């Protein structure tokens, strides 16, 4: 005994195999359209420890910025890896 959901997917499969050209054209249009939107996505793969207390991190960042240029401040993301990061001693460095 088949369920309604199984019947639905079997009919869908039969329809798709009977109309392969239409399925391929629709898939191509979807891929082309989504690719055009993805081309506008900007990714900043740099690592800028704005609030680092480690001089080695700061030196590394300055060296990379001299070599590849800076895009600081265009997009700011914060990753907090410690549970005690939001404390009274940490907050002044975010000001």
Count the E strands.
Answer: 0
Structural class: mainly alpha
Average of per-residue pLDDT values:
76
Shape: elongated
Work out the radius of gyration: 26 Å
Q: Tell me the helix content.
A: 40-55%
Strand content: under 5%
Helical run tally = 3
Give, in order, the helices and strands.
HHH
Distance between the amino and carboxyl termini: 66 Å
Question: Which consecutive residue ranges, at least 5 long each, have pLDDT under 50?
Answer: none
Largest β-sheet summary: none
Task: State the gist of this model.
The chain has helices at about 5-20, 20-40, 55-70. With about 100 residues, it is an all-alpha fold.
Could you walk me through the main structural features you see in this protein, from its secondary elements to its overall organization?
- The chain has about 100 residues and is mostly helical.
- It is about 50% helix and about 0% strand.
- The chain contains 3 helices and no strands.
- The mean pLDDT is about 75.
Task: Show the helix and strand layout.
Blueprint: H1 4-18, H2 20-38, H3 55-68
Keywords:
mainly alpha; 51% helix; 95 residues
